[in-house]
Design brief:
This protein is an alpha+beta fold. It is about 30% helix and about 15% strand. The protein has one domain: Beta-lactamase (3-Layer(aba) Sandwich). The chain has a 6-stranded antiparallel β-sheet with strand order 2-1-11-10-9-8, sandwiched between helices. A hairpin with a 3-residue loop joins strand 9 and strand 10. The two termini are about 20 Å apart. GO terms for molecular function: hydrolase activity.
């Protein structure tokens, strides 16, 4: 990475930052897009799909990891707009198997804002190696706090949200996401479970001890893998251009989407802070700017929001500045223990906000 004397008198670019991170082996490949309401202003790709592998291309498919969550949230709000679901409705109303447990009174809104009380990272796959067993384990998870009283990031909560969205729509989650989000926005290369023929387009992720191989073309998240690659918390793969289209669609209040999609008030509601009385700022499926150590850097407006993914992905939207930024990397390749991504991500978003 550059030192201060080297930076004197110049303004660094996102490309320079990411090339330096690649040389430091933070990731083998990256793709990025920064822009505003007029579309992308700076974009690029670098590196390879794996160390020693073929080069990253514009059509590379990236494992979005938890960037899946705001996409599923958009699909849930599509159902709300169409009268098929309500934010105040509870898990028990939609999933009878939860009626007698602690999760019964948790609402859809609390799942979306990570205030359900469900615990954070839960390696359920270790004890529940098949879909039926893992789904049966979800209702038994103990709440860590009373619903609505604390923010705790919970992938388990979004697994449950995905099940509710399926029940409310009557469709499998992959069909719902295609109908409610990727189809209307025009994201032809985004979806769950890439075809075998597209495996060579996918950026590699971890050399996974659990699977005994380098993961490429299947979801990195182990719980999502047990669920068949389609889940509310992880599983989407897509290209740089597709995620940039989604960022622009949300930033523009839906004006870049031809035909009927989500309304501008709904999109604004999703990005607004719903947990400001608590310690962390969360929207409906989006992560707002927290008071300290935001992954979205230091220069964005207080109203900005986005989401990150464990594989090294992120999308950031700033309605005040009228800007978005997308960063896709495979920072877990070959190991999730690779250091440096937190710093790279914050600096990337500072550069995106400053120009």
């Amino acid at each position: 990475m550059r030192t201060l004397p080297e930076l004197a008198g110049i303004r660094a670019s996102e490309a320079e930052l990411l090339h330096a991170a690649h040389r430091a082996r933070v990731f083998s490949g990256a793709a990025w897009s920064v822009g505003g309401l007029d579309g992308p202003s700076r974009r690029g790709t670098l590196g390879t799909l794996s160390w020693g592998g073929p080069p990253v291309r514009p059509d590379t498919l990236w494992d979005w990891a938890s960037v899946t969550k705001p996409v599923v949230a958009l699909a849930a709000m599509w159902l709300v707009e169409r009268g098929a679901l309500g934010l105040a409705e509870t898990i028990a109303e939609w999933l009878p198997g939860y009626a007698d447990g602690e999760l019964a009174p948790v609402t859809v809104e609390q799942l979306l804002t990570h205030t359900s009380g469900l615990p954070g990272r839960q390696p359920l796959y270790r004890r529940h190696p098949d879909r039926a067993s893992l789904l049966a384990a979800l209702p038994a998870l103990p709440l860590r706090s009373a619903p609505g009283t604390a923010v705790e990031y919970s992938s388990a909560g979004f697994m449950v949200l995905g099940l509710i969205a399926e029940a409310a729509s009557g469709w499998p989650l992959d069909r719902l996401v295609a109908t409610a989000v990727t189809g209307p926005v025009g994201m032809p290369d985004t979806g769950f479970r890439p075809a075998t023929s597209d495996r060579d387009r996918c950026a590699a992720t971890e050399d996974c001890p659990w699977r005994g191989e380098v993961v490429q073309g299947s979801v990195h998240d182990e719980n999502a893998a047990v669920l068949g690659g389609v889940a509310g918390h992880a599983g989407l793969f897509g290209t740089l251009d597709d995620l940039a289209k989604l960022a622009l669609a949300v930033l523009s209040g839906g004006t870049t989407v031809p035909g009927d999609w989500l309304s501008a008030p709904t999109l604004a509601l999703m990005g607004r802070g719903h947990t400001d009385r608590l310690d962390l700022r969360r929207g409906l499926g989006w992560q707002g700017r927290d008071p300290h150590a935001s992954p979205f850097g230091d220069l964005g407006s207080p109203e900005s929001y986005g989401h990150t993914g464990f594989t090294g992905t992120s999308v950031w939207l700033d309605p005040t500045l009228g800007r978005y930024a997308v960063l896709l990397t495979n920072r877990v390749h070959p190991s999730r223990a690779t250091p440096g991504m937190d710093t790279v991500r914050r600096r990337f978003h500072n550069l995106a906000a400053a120009r």
